[in-house]
Each structure stands twice: as C-alpha cells, then as structure tokens.
Amino acid sequence: MTGTAWSWPGALVGLTVGIGLLLVVRGLPMRRRADLNARLEPYVRDSPRPSRLLVSDVADLQVHRALAPGLHRLGAIVGQVLGGSASVRRRLERAGQPTDVEGFRAQQALWGVVAGIIGTVLMSLRWLSNGTSLGGALAVVSISVCIGVVARDQMLSRAASQREQRILAEFPSVAEMLALAVTAGEGAAAALDRVARLSSGELSGELQRCLADARAGATLPEALQGLADRTGISSLARFVDGVVVAVERGTPLADVMRAQAQDARDASKQQLIEEGGKREITMMIPVVFLVLPVTILFAIYPGLSELRLSL
C-alpha cells in the first residue's frame, strides 16, 4: 500500500476529527452566548415552560438542541442554492404541514448530511477492498448529498399529492352532507360546523380551520376562499366560489349546495373513468410483453420441432 493511497483517507479522518473537536469546543457552556430571543423569551412567553420531568426523552431533546443551529445554517445555504421558497411554502400548505420553510430546509440539510455520511462509508469500504481515487470518492459523496436533498423535496411533493387525492375522495360525501344540512334549514356556518364535527379526514380538518378563521374575525367568504387557496384543488375551488356567490348575493343556498354536490359527484365519476383508462393501459404491459410472447412461443415451438426432425 503506497503513501498516496493512504493520503486521502487519513486526511478525511483527520478532517472529521477536527470538525468534531471544533463542534465540541464551540458547544461548551462557557462559550455559549444567549441571543436576544433567549433573553426575552422568559418575559414574553404566554405559557410557562414545561418541566423536563414531563419530557418523554431528554436525550433526544438535548441532541435536537445541539444539532438545530448547525442544521438551520446548512438549511439556509440549501435555500440560497435552490431557491423557490414560495413553491416550498405552497407545497407545505397543500401537504397540511406547518409552513416553516426554514425548518424544511433544515430537514433537507439533515437528509443531505445523512446521505453524505452513507456515501462516505460506502467509498471507505470500497477503498479498503480494492482502492479508489480521491476525485471519484468526492464525486460520489457530493452526488449522495444532492440525492438526499432532492429526495426530501420529492417526498414533500408526494405528500402534497397524496393529501390532495384524499381530499378529492372525501369531497363528494362532504358536499352531500353540506347540502343535506342546508336543506334542513341550517345556515352556511352552522352546516360547516356540523359537517366538520360529524366527519373525519383531511377535508374535515380544513373545514375546522376555515371555521376557526371565521371565528377569529374573518368573514365566511374570506375563510372559504382561504380554504380553496390552501388546497389548490380546482373542483373544491369551484364549490367554494358557488357558496361564496350564494352567501354574498343572497341566492337560495340549498339549491346551490345540491347543484355543487351533484357537480362533485360527476367530477368524481369522471376521475374514476380516467383512472380506469390509465389502469387499462397499464394492464396491457404484462399482456403484451409477458403473456403474448409465451403464447407465441408455445404455438411456434411444435412446428419448429417438426421442421427440425424433417430436415
């Protein structure tokens, strides 16, 4: 084993140890300085701080506090490189998660660090087995970090899409219940309150948030419009527009609700038909590429055997 082969793993281990010692020194109690938020929080906090005896896992809490500043700094770097904070905030709202862009960037940084550590371990094992170059190792580690960051972003997009699908599945039933409640003589706010209390799911949670906004001072049309903006679903937006117009102009709400519920049912049927068409095309893949070749093989093989025997 030459000195060149030992140079970059030794440098990597030394760099890791140096960074660890630096973090330990910076985390010592005598080197900590309370920022302005930490000094003012005890005087402006609404509720008293909970006792540490009530925390389920104190070790996890200490680890989180130790890693949070570094992760937020790395998250800020990720945000500067990638950008798109408005898109991230919109997808967080669609996924039903807190619209904390900085926290999400910190999670992306954490995923990138974990993926980079995994890439470093794999390249170290490869170096121990048959050796590898420093450039290739750095490229693999960099690609691993990028994969971790992008994977967290794709996971958020998938969570938003799945939540939209659940809301679309719940929407026709909720629209029917609202139409029945309004037809029975209740107002729009009372019908929303009843349906939100009697139902469960993602759309029920959005209705409860809509009612909370209305109770906090917003008008019912503004609260409903906020619901449509948060979800970003076209069919739900049309339903909200119909209800808002009926409330503002004094149109009979029962007729509007029944018409909107019927439209929701029709949209759900259309979506099922489209999904069935896509599944039908998907089902042709095993038929064409698996069943059909085997069938042709069984049909041609006896003839080929007879021709071979005759020759």
UniProtKB/TrEMBL annotation:
Keywords: Cell membrane, Membrane, Transmembrane, Transmembrane helix. Residues 176-298 form the Type II secretion system protein GspF domain. InterPro entries: T2SS_GspF_dom. The chain crosses the membrane at residues 6-25, 109-128, 134-151, 281-301. Signal peptide: none annotated. It is found in: Cell membrane. GO terms for cellular component: plasma membrane. This is Pilus assembly protein TadB. The keyword Cytoplasm does not apply. It is a multi-pass membrane protein. Its main location: membrane.
